[in-house]
Amino acid sequence: MAEKQIGTWAVKVGLAQMLKGGVIMDVTNAEQAKIAEDAGACAVMALERVPADIRREGGVARMADPTKISEIMEAVSIPVMAKARIGHFVEAQVLEALGVDYIDESEVLTPADEENHINKNDFNVPFVCGCRNLGEALRRIGEGAAMIRTKGEAGTGDIVEAVRHARAVFGEIRRIQNMRPEELMHVAKELGAPYELLKETAELGRLPVVNFAAGGIATPADAALMMQLGVDGVFVGSGIFKSADPAPRAKAIVEATTHFNDPDIIARVSRGLGIPMAGLAVKQIPEKELLAVRGW
Amino acid sequence: MLKRIGVDAVEIRKAEQLAGLDGLIMPGGESTTFAKLAVEFKLLEPLRAFCKSGKPVWGTCAGMIFLAKDIGRAQPTLELMDVKVKRNAFGRQVDSFEIDLDIPALNAIENGSGKPAPFHAIFIRAPLIESVGKGVEVLAKLDDGTIIAARQGNLLATSFHPELTRDVRMHRYFLGLAK
């Protein structure tokens, strides 16, 4: 029999395939991780502070303390993801050494490099990266991201940016599907996207990797909205543990994501969940405080 | 994949959708999520009835866990296949791997080249089969003897994900269970 090969593209994109249709929840300790797993999360994201707190407290946001990440990994049996700063490949090396299952190179943390992202092909652990449009998504895949999430505006509980970014990606894909092959090079130049990946996307009619939505999802209906727009699954950050009663809300968001096309079920699971996170309308945030514009 | 070999496929989320199917594939995913949704949406009994009808049912990875009688932890499964399964048996994602397997049961299935070829298998945070009961046929093992595919009557279980490759032989083998 042949030798085992690890860290291949197939196993990196394969794990993302297994998360499809699911909900990935931000957690800051072992107790929250257990609540997320019990609610049916398909993975958790380990971090020091949820985005709403990062936004409120300010300062530099970094990779979480390894002790905290290890505690979360020991507490649950589902995959554990963790965030590294954009371009901070040593934080990524540390997370790989800890054995996390996926790294999120995330705009929610303070960027470490204002031009370059991490060369994700150097790692055995897979990466997920954020995007606001097709060009950004394909640049990240070009660097080795095995999963994409539309960014939205993290820590707001306002879905408007998540919708904007998902519509931008899907709209651009529909546009290139109708193009003649010779027109794609011009679009590649215009979007700043690698030509081969753009061509593959046009042929597939979707991104070549799994594409989740993130940033602003606070209710079961928000999650189902993103699913109906065409994403493969959702990340919920502050939306769960900044709400009045996290456990039932987490479970309801999982159920609404599974049954995203069934309004009767979404109505049923949305009942009596208590007060959602207070939220912050994106329109009222000063431009220099927006997180989604980080990433190049 | 099923479309490529001329089979119509639909996604199943609710019990009433099981009516009229000729077979069922329970794919990979997170098995704890599977179990919770199956209980919440009352799918366990309808799925058990479907499996007992004799129609072919195939579980890959999390689907294999879901078919097993014993998974060594308190997590609901269909408890139909007489196997003991261990979850996340190979480690975390950085230990996920690809490998070529010899699967004798596939040798009779046409693969385009006319002669037996290894099956390229992808294992993602995969489970393994620790032991099998009577009536369970072992279909594939790793070099160290680890059982990674088995069949019991109309029930088929694989630790790996043929749906992530281009090789249709495992799917053809599954369709063969319908006869």
How would you characterize this protein structure?
The complex is a heterodimer of chains A (296) and B (179). Chain A is of the alpha/beta class and 296 residues long. In chain A, 44% of the residues lie in helices and 13% in strands. Chain A has 13 helices and nine strands. Chain A has helices spanning 9-19, 30-39, 51-57, 66-75, 89-98, 134-142, 160-177, 181-191, 195-204, 220-229, 238-241, 246-258, 263-270, and strands at residues 5-6, 23-27, 43-46, 80-85, 102-106, 127-131, 147-150, 210-213, 234-236. Chain A has an eight-stranded parallel β-sheet with strand order 8-7-6-5-4-3-2-9, with helices on both faces. In chain A, helix 2 links the parallel strand 2 and strand 3. In chain A, helix 2 runs parallel beside helix 12 (246-258), helix 7 packs across helix 9 and helix 10 packs parallel to helix 12. The radius of gyration of chain A is 18 Å and the shape is globular. The model of chain A has no long low-confidence stretch (mean pLDDT 96). Chain B has four helices and ten strands; from the N terminus they run βααβαββββββββα. With 179 residues, chain B is α/β, with parallel strands linked by helices. The model of chain B has no long low-confidence stretch (mean pLDDT 94). Chain B is globular. Chain B has a five-stranded mixed β-sheet. Chain B is 18% helix and 26% strand. Chain B has one domain (23-177): Rossmann fold, CATH 3.40.50. The interface between A and B is large, with 42 and 33 residues.
